[in-house]
Amino acid sequence: MSHDPRIQPLQEPYSEDVATMLAKWMPPGSAVEPLRLFRTLAVHEQLSSRMRPLGAGILGPRALVEPLLREVMIARTCALTGASYEWGVHAVAFARPLGLDDEQLRSTVHGTPGDPCWDERQGAVMSLADELHHTSTISDPLWERLRRSFEEAEVLELIVTCGYYHVIAYVCNGAGVQQEEWAEPFPPPRA
User: Fold this and answer.
1) Three-state secondary structure call for residue 11
2) Is the pTM for the entire model greater than 0.90?
3) How many domains does the chain have?
4) C-alpha distances in angstroms, 36 versus 50, 66, 85, 93, 119?
5) Which tens digit of pLDDT belongs to each residue from 18-62?
6) CB count, 10 Å around CB of 3?
7) Which residue among 7, 10, 35, 99 is least packed, with the fewest CB closer than 10 Å?
8) Are 168 and 86 in contact, with CB atoms under 8 Å apart?
9) Contact 110, 190 (CB under 8 A)
10) Which residues span the domain enclosing 168?
11) How many CB atoms lie within 10 A of CB 97?
């Protein structure tokens, strides 16, 4: 993104309340400055405080969905919505450490659920992200496919994850949140 942010992220020095809130958004003991997204959300402290618990629940240890599958959902959702900021942060901080490779990350941006880099469950998650994004529902054939691979509670968590990251994409894109220097850009399409 080449233009200035539409909503400037908060800068230090933070008030005590904002510093406490930003610390909650970041992983414990993180040496990284609070993300621009979090500092943008902090412009509206009450809204930020209401959004954080759901995000933490999706990413936290009590989530039902296997973390790698969660990252497939997040990466595909971010790619479909053009949220390069969030895609790039997750690629570095979560997706790669969990085992998603270059081919899979490229597929989340330029590929399809049928690409050979995906196993059955991963392809089903990609299909779910696509259908929810394009139709806001799940077709009967995809529902049957999901039922063969996932518990209903896991499917529900995947649906909520997709919706949450649509909201995050709207914030990133609408507020003009600029890339973190360390985050990955969307990969180029194959030549």
Assistant:
1) coil
2) yes
3) 2
4) 18, 27, 10, 15, 34
5) 999 999 999 888 888 999 999 999 999 999 999 999 999 999 999
6) 7
7) 99
8) yes
9) yes
10) 67-175
11) 12
d(CA 19, CA 147): 43
Say whether both 136 and 52 belong to one domain: no
Token readout for 155 is 């499917």
Please state, in angstroms and rounded to a whole number, the distance separating the CA atoms of residues 187 and 191: 12
Which amino acid type is present at position 80? L
Distance between CA atoms of residues 11 and 35, nearest Å: 11
CB 144 within 8 A of CB 126: no
Q: Quick check: is 2 in a domain?
A: no
Kindly report the CATH number assigned to the domain that includes residue 135: 1.20.1290.10
Residue position matching structure tokens 């959902």: 73
**Phi-psi domain of 99 (left: phi exceeds 0; alpha: psi -120 through 50; beta: other):** left
Same domain, 36 and 74: no
Single-letter amino acid, residue 29: G
* CA–CA distance, 188 with 133 (Å, rounded to integer): 22
Each residue's pLDDT tens digit, 145-178: 999 999 999 999 999 999 999 999 999 999 999 9
